[in-house]
Specification:
mainly beta, 4-stranded antiparallel β-sheet
């Protein structure tokens, strides 16, 4: 059986510059929320509400320029703003910088976007 050939514009391969101070090598994004259900007298679901919606991004890569981002600061990941469809600011919860005599400087961000919080 021949190998599959991917054609079209609905697929994505690789990471296009997530931020200007790094060459991104890994990216994960997780959209989550809290679900609340109201039951009717028969025990069926009468209404559903989703609260606490957020997107958590974990970005890793190599440092390419000086970094002024710190924990608690705001952050705008360039090619990720459409993920999850939330309206809110991006806030840095963790920054990890790793330097070694055996490798290039690496940086890792944990960035969270919460719906409605700017």
């Amino acid at each position: 059986m021949p190998a599959a050939i991917i054609k079209g514009t609905v697929t994505s391969f690789g990471i296009a510059s997530a931020v200007s101070t790094m060459v991104a090598t890994n990216l994960t994004a997780n959209l989550s929320s809290n679900k609340v259900e109201a039951k009717n007298i028969s025990g069926g679901v009468a209404a559903v509400a989703f609260t606490g919606k957020k997107v958590e991004f974990n970005l890793e890569g190599y440092v390419t320029a000086s970094n002024g981002v710190s924990q608690g600061g705001s952050f705008t990941p360039t090619n990720l703003s459409s993920f999850g469809g939330l309206a809110g600011g991006y806030f840095v919860e963790e920054v990890t910088l790793t330097k070694s005599s055996e490798d290039f400087a690496k940086i890792k961000y944990k960035v969270v976007q919460r719906d409605g919080i700017t």
